[in-house]
Every structure is written in structure tokens, then in C-alpha cells.
Amino acid sequence: MPSRTDPGSNDTSRTRLIERLMEQFPHVPREAVIKEDLLRGGVAFDESALSDNEGGDVKPKSYFIFSFDHGTLPELGAAALRRPPEEIVLTGGPYELRRTVVSVRVNPASPYRVASDADGVLGLYLDGRRISDVGLPPMPDYYRHTLGNGKSVMEVAPTIQWGYLVYLTVFRVCQYFGAKEECQYCDINHNWRQHKAAGRPYTGVKPVEEVLEALAIIDRYDTAKTSTAYTLTGGAITSHIGGRDEADFYGQYAKAIEERFPGRWIGKVVAQALPKADVQRFHDYGVQIYHPNYEVWDRRLFELYCPGKERYVGRDEWHRRILDSADVFGARNVIPNFVAGVEMAEPFGFTTVKEAIDSTTEGLRFFMSHGITPRFTTWCPEPTTPLGRTNPDGAPLEYHIRLLEAYRSTMEEYGLSSPPGYGPPGPGRAVFSVSSFMDSLPARQEDDRTGSGAIS
Ligand code: SF4
User: Fold this and answer.
1) Which residue minimizes the CA distance to atom 2 of ligand 1?
2) Domain ranges of the chain
3) What highest taxon heads this organism's lineage (predicted)?
């Protein structure tokens, strides 16, 4: 077997690309190079690696908010009928990978393929060469039970990040609607339509009672207490749902959960950057971590990519509100997300990696200088979105690798550490599955419940 410094290669372009980047960026874990490439470009699955949906032993992909696939359901072939696993875990192989959890984004045309060998052992293949072992998530006990009305726990309260996070998309569509309002990289509304068209259960607005019932099942059967946090999220609410504005709509779930299961999970909400009084309501309802996502830093790109947010709130006000929310939650517990890679999308994005990283670093510095630690997800160019259509390959892998480097060094410059509520940092330990920022930060011995000590 080749050593870590000389993994060997066959002469194919994608293999050459990842090995060149591993060599060029020795401080970025090799695990992160492969994980980012899988997240930006997707992975194909042999039928032997698919799940048997909710009746089998493998935890299926729940489609917890966006499709995160490189094709529409009808284009995914067998993977549309037998769901792929929610995540895969990579270990070993010629690059001696430490345990790496990767969210599954299906792309039948990817040079990466999960398949089993003649002995039935699963592996990850790149350009036809086996590059790691693959583990699949076991079906959790709580997925084997249904709610009183027959709905599945996977539909109402799926878990991701190897069971760490309960993902509660309680509003499955967005009130930013159509080309003039929807974010240009987001397929939340399409994903809702395609699951309805396929006849899958897909609840638009999840009743509070259903969420509580599903959580009670999780609480009862998750005896190892792997589930540690929940995220309340969904589309933006520009008017009302059932007479409630955005803070009261998402806040009602936090209130009900905290009353019923006090302190059982770390409560997080992903919502718009709201005025301070609304943010205070989130806090009063029992939310501990607030994610007012800023999406992309560059002013021109924000205006082009997030027309609804620009029109209703505006970029400057959005940023002001993020800073203000630190007065309510404490800077450590305000963690705005951005979508890593869209700043390089054609036709409007930066044309060089350097410009894109410089711009994104400016945004990191803006927030980190106020003690706020942003985080990012790796852009998946879903084909039904405007940016996905024009950029089917996503951003260059080098951008994603340089971003990991820039993120870590900016964080160190401001004396910050990994944000709370993401589990443990470090290669071989991280469970955050939709980007490798946690895999790329130093491992620390601390409270694994938050990944960063206590939450105030
Ligand atoms: S605000 Fe933008 S990113 Fe969020 S759900 Fe709506 S369209 Fe998608």
C-alpha cells in the first residue's frame, strides 16, 4: 500500500487533481479534499449500495430540506426508487483516510462511485480505483416506529450528521417565490414539488404536535443519546403562516420542544436576519443558537443571487441585524452560514479563485472581528436552480480547499475556535457532513455535546 506521502495514482484527471491539491495544501487534511470533491460534484451508487428505504437496515436519504442531488428524481434511476443512504463514512484506502462523514449528493455521472467488490465489501472508487472503505449509516431504532397518524419519523424529524442533529424543516417551501425572489442556488420549492409529484409524503407545514410526537420517539429509542441538537428551519416567511410571523412561527416549535423536553437538545434556528425584537423572541422561546445566513459576501453577488432578501431587507441591513443579534444570543451563538462556491458561479461570479477567496475572507473578517463565527456549506449545483443550470460542475475544487485554509487562519487570527453545536472538530472526529470545515479544524479535548464548551 502506498504511504501517506506517496499514495500512487493512475493517470486520470480527477485523481490527478485531488493528488495535486493534497500535495499543494499539506495542511488541509486529505480527508477534506475528498469530502469537498464529493460534496461539490456528487457520487454515483451501484444498486448494491442503495438502501431498502424505510424497510431495510440502512438509513435512507431523507431529503431534509433541499434535494442536494445533481439530477431530478426521475433522472436518478434506481436511486429514485431505492433511496441512497443519508450519509457515507469513509476510512482507510491508499490515502489512509481517517473516519470521514459525508452527506450524500447523488450524481450518476460522477467519477466517484460507491460499489461493492466480489466479496460484497463496499468501497469508494475514483476513476475506477478503490480509494477508501465505505460504511453506511445503520437504520436507527427510532426510524422503525411511526406516528399515530402513520407518518414516519424520517419524514417529520429526520436526523443527519450521523445522528447528531435532528433536522426540523417545519416549513417545506419558501415565501420568496419565483425567479425574482428565490435565491438563485436554492431548490427548496422545486424539491417540494418533485416529492409531491413522486407521491412521496412531504408535509408542507409540520404541525407542532407531530414534531413533538416524533421527538418523543427519538428520545425514547435513542438510548445512547447520540442526537444532541435540533435545527428548526424552512423557507423565509415574508408575511404570515397561520397568523404568525417568522419569529413566532419558528419560535412556537422551540417553545413547545423546550416545555416538553427541557434541555434535552441544543435548540438552533435557521431564519432570516430579523430585527432585534424578533431575535429576542427566538431567545425567549428557548432557542440557543441563531443562524441568520448571509449566503454570499460580495455585494453585487448578494444582490443578484438573493433578490428576495435584497428587496425585502437589503444587504447592509441584513449584516447590521446579524451584528445586533449578538447582543441577544452572545456572539458565539450567532453562526451565520454562507454557501461556499456560488461566488465562482458563471456568468456573474469571480473568475479567479484568488478573487473569490479574497472576497469571502473579507466577509469572514467582518464577522469574526465582532466575535461572530460564520460557517459554510459546500454548494451543490442542483440542476433546477439558475446557478446549477449554468454551472453543473460547481466551483473549482481548489476554491474549496483554499477556503478551508482561509477559514482556519482567519479564525486563528481572531482567537476563535470551532462554533458550538457542531459536535467535535478535527479530522477523524467531525460529524458535520455538508462541508468539511469541522474536519479541517484542530481536534480539541472538550465537551463533545457542543464541540466548543458550554453555551451561555
Ligand atoms: S430564503 Fe433563499 S435560500 Fe432560504 S429557502 Fe428561501 S429561496 Fe431558499
Assistant:
1) 183
2) 13-135, 141-413
3) Bacteria
